[in-house]
Amino acid sequence: MAQYSVRRYVMCPPAHFAVEYAINPWMDTSRPVHRGRAVAQWERLRETYEALGHQVDLLEPIPGLPDMVFTANGAMVIGDRALGARFRESVREPEAPAHREFLTGLGIDVRLPQAVNEGQGDFAWTGRHILAGSGFRTSREAHVEVEQTFGVPVLALELVDPRFYHLDTALCVLDSDVIAYYPPAFSEASRRILAEGYPDAILAGDDDAQVLGLNAVSDGEHVVLAAQAEKLCARIAEAGFTPIPVDVSELLRGGGGAKCATLELHDHNRPRAHTAGPRAGAGQ
């Protein structure tokens, strides 16, 4: 049975969002961003979370940092601790101190990283362990740091397709026992690890992966994901979850989606069983 728990998220308005450089295969500087559309889609995403009963804290956007809307990359947070980000791409480095200052202001103890990591872009908390990606943005040394920071087991996974340069572009944790992922994004060894650890996982197809349908956010019952990922929505519903499709197509121009725009302040405890919660159709 799907499990619901109230979540707390950090988001940053896309006031300065643009594609001014290309640091992933999705970015094309010849295709200008429609900022008004991006803001409207982002507002709809925020409203969706709030309609589901979740808290959203807002990080102030900084001029000159067009990717700051993608708050998931700013840290990994569980309970009152965080491992700050150390971006691989120099154009994003100034985002890291902004995130650290913001989280510190919330009373969170932020550890300064030594190894390169891009926060929840490559770290996913399941309630039992952290799934940790590497291959493009986050180093394997960072897996050791995140394990030491939170004192929980880490399951290392290797990404092999540059389109899926962060773990959160190819895998989503739906609840403490169920994940969805796109197998071709992972090395053969990592596919074996995922198949063994998650025999009931939802496997996404090419069409849904290519619209970053797996860049999704789950509260244990409701799954907020790209509206264009129609087959994945159906599979999620068949598995007993409630898909909440949102259009974040403008953010896709920067290589992101719902999850990229959402930093979760994870509770250290596993989600509680759902009894009575928000209206299942909120946000649709």
- Whole-number count of domains: 1
- Main sheet summary: 3 strands, mixed
- Average per-residue pLDDT, rounded, comes to 94
User: Over all CA atoms, what is the radius of gyration?
Assistant: 17 Å
- What best-fitting shape do the alpha-carbon axes yield? globular
User: In terms of quaternary structure, what is this?
Assistant: single chain
Low-confidence stretches: 270-284
Query: Strand percentage, roughly?
Result: 15-25%
- In the sheet with the most strands, the strands line up as 2-1-15
CATH class: Alpha Beta
Report the order of strands and helices: EHEEEHEEEHEEEHEHEEHEE
CATH topology: L-arginine/glycine Amidinotransferase, Chain A
CATH superfamily: L-arginine/glycine Amidinotransferase, Chain A
Number of strands: 15
Question: What structural category characterises the helix and strand content?
Answer: alpha/beta
Distance between the termini: 22 Å
Q: Please bin the fraction of helical residues.
A: 10-25%
Contiguous helical run count: 6
CATH architecture: 5-stranded Propeller
Family: Belongs to the DDAH family.
Active site: 166, 260
Protein name: Amidinotransferase
GO molecular function: amino acid binding; dimethylargininase activity
